[in-house]
Amino acid sequence: MLKASFRFILLLFSPEICLKAHAFHRSPLFQTSQISHEHKAFARLLPPLCCVSDGNSSPSSDWIKAELSLKVFPTEPSPEMSPEFVAISCCRSLQFVDHPTESAGLERCFPFFTWECRKGVTARKGGDTVERFCKYGVLSPALQPFMGAKKIDFGEGTLNPGTMTRGDLVSFPVIVYGNDALSFQHPSGLIRDTIDSTPKESNMVIRMEKARRPPLQGCWLVKEVIVLKNTKDTF
Prior knowledge:
Layout: H1 2-13, H2 15-18, H3 21-25, H4 28-31, H5 37-43, H6 59-71, H7 83-95, H8 104-109, H9 115-121, H10 130-137, E1 151-154, E2 158-160, E3 169-177, E4 201-210, E5 220-227
Antiparallel strand pairs: 1-3, 2-3, 3-4, 4-5
Helix pairs in contact: 6-7
């Protein structure tokens, strides 16, 4: 245990390791199915579990933070989870959509998306079951920018107090620096006539809602995933 914890500290603070994030991704430390209490304590101190990103992190260090976030992301909603934690963890799950198995990120997101959100991002086809959500979610224009993203920057949340008909809302602006593969595609997924060498940058909003009814009363869930260029919403 002491040896593993020492390795973990070196991995966090060694610049050489940060520059080799892809190799680190396949290291035995991150292939374990369980993470120790010591590792969880370190992970909770990292920026991904805070809302604000400084915008200066490298893609490799961002991926390391993403993996650490997923290690402490529970499988079911709980009133103890903050809206920041849920929003960021869902984004990280989509970023690592096929880790550790195919569509595992979508499976992680399923219980944290409202039924309306699941229907909305899958063109009304994947709201009811995990299997259909994974099948159609991987094709979603709203979710694809996150998948394999090089880096994700998170902004400050904006609170809208609840009303008689809904719970509190918190909206988080997100900038997604997309995978190189998206440089070859239009937003529809069709291949471009010419190659754009600039990684796709997407301005998004993750809108959270606090559930008011059992069995998820008090839990923060993803209500909307908004692509800003496709809406008049602004921040």
